[in-house]
Design brief:
Blueprint lengths: L4 H6 L21 E3 L1 H6 L4 E6 L9 H14 L4 E5 L3 H13 L2 E7 L5 H10 L2 E5 L3 H14 L3 E2 L5 H7 L1 H10 L5 E5 L4 H15 L8 E7 L4 H4 L21 H11 L2 E5 L1 H15 L8 H12 L8 E6 L7 H6 L12 H8 L2
Parallel strand pairs: 2-10, 3-4, 3-6, 4-5, 7-8, 7-10, 8-9
Antiparallel strand pairs: 1-2
Helix pairs in contact: 3-4, 3-7, 4-5, 7-9, 8-9, 9-11, 12-13
The protein binds pyridoxal-5'-phosphate.
Pyridoxal-5'-phosphate binds next to α9.
């Protein structure tokens, strides 16, 4: 049977009407994978990774985008637009292509992982590069959509948050309840807002007894919520969370405070360390921003937090393949070179 997608699966929790087209590219229903090795390493009761890289365009953005594009179609729009550090544009252009409407993506010059740009190019977006940062790009798209018959599909579009909250539902459905802690990266803060909304709705309906603490992590060079002020020139290797003025800032603080969680920051070194540990000891290849989840857990562990007896979920927001550059840079010079004969290879491998 074909995968139903999140609109068909969770329609009763979403702004789906009988006029909403139930489009899908097979998003959602992503694996929740337990990692015995990392669980042991960090002393967690149970440690799971929610593999959002398994969505059709390789990131969680597909969950919100399918909802946003379906609503744009329902409302008669023939074009969608977004400002994006990469994954939002990849997702928007894929769903627009499948629906037969135009997509316009506005990106800040430079600092875009190449794999994501490749996706927008291949899916056929109109790509505008702005000489500015992400916040400039978002401002310009908002102005365009205010004036022209184009649907804005950034996470300020409430339909995005609605679709994204289905990830919280899936985690609870898989575990038969909520975890104690949910670790996730925070950029524009749409995702933490969406997860919290999802958990609260399940709790409100009595499907789960309690909601998890929301543990959000920003990159140290792009940590406006932690610092309590906008960051004019956000800098981090984790391009997907390189954001100085999050659109859902207030909602992220509410998620933190209402859940009894934290929003803290991790350095690029901590992100890269977690990125490697997740791959080398978990078999999970997330993009650098995704590793902020585990980096946050490791930071707390080192500061003495005991995760024993707790169910912990780390969200792996996007695929490492989108940013192969970062992987290969960290590896350079480590190839084992041998002559083309078995004996040489055996010797080099230490047999
Ligand atoms: C968008 C994105 C984030 C950040 O999510 P926000 O909703 O902007 O906080 C993190 N990781 C990846 C891979 C993303 O694509």
């Amino acid at each position: 049977m074909a995968k139903p997608g999140v609109l068909a699966q969770y329609g009763k929790f979403l702004p789906v009407t009988d006029k909403t087209p139930l489009i899908t590219l097979g998003e959602g229903d992503t694996p929740l994978v337990r990692s015995p090795r990392l669980e042991k390493e960090f002393g967690a009761g149970e440690l799971y990774f929610k593999l959002e890289a398994c969505n059709p365009t390789g990131s969680f953005k597909d969950r919100g985008m399918v909802m946003a594009v379906a609503k744009a179609l329902e409302n008669g729009f023939k074009a969608v637009a977004c400002a994006s550090t990469g994954n939002t544009s990849a997702s928007a252009t894929a769903y627009a292509a499948a629906a037969g409407i135009e997509s316009i993506i506005v990106i800040p010059k430079g600092k875009i992982a190449l794999g994501k740009l490749a996706q927008a190019i291949v899916y056929g977006a109109k790509i505008v590069m702005v000489d500015g940062n992400f916040d400039d790009a978002l401002r310009m798209v908002r102005e365009l959509c205010d004036k022209q018959p184009v649907a804005l599909v950034n996470s300020v579009n409430p339909n995005r948050i609605e679709g994204q909250k289905t990830a919280a539902f899936e985690i609870c459905d898989s575990l038969g309840g909520a975890p104690e802690l949910l670790f996730l990266p925070v950029g524009n803060a749409g995702n933490i807002t969406a997860y919290w909304k999802g958990f609260k709705e399940y709790r409100g309906r009595g499907i789960i007894a309690a909601a998890p603490k929301m543990m959000g992590f920003q990159a140290a060079g792009a940590a406006p919520i932690v610092l309590g002020h906008k960051v004019d020139k956000p800098e981090t290797i984790a391009t997907a969370i390189r954001i100085g003025n999050p659109a859902s800032w207030k909602q992220a603080e509410a998620a933190r405070d209402e859940s009894g969680g934290v929003i803290d920051m991790v350095s690029d070194d901590e992100i890269l360390e977690a990125y490697r540990i997740m791959a080398e000891k978990g078999g999970i290849f997330g993009e650098p921003a995704s590793a902020a989840s585990l980096a946050g857990l490791i930071k707390m562990k080192r500061r003495g937090t005991d995760f024993g007896g707790q169910k912990v979920v780390c969200v792996v927001t996007g695929s490492g393949l989108k940013d192969a550059d970062t992987a290969i840079k960290g590896f350079s010079g480590q190839f084992i070179e041998v002559a083309a004969e078995l004996a040489a290879m055996e010797k080099a491998l230490g047999y």
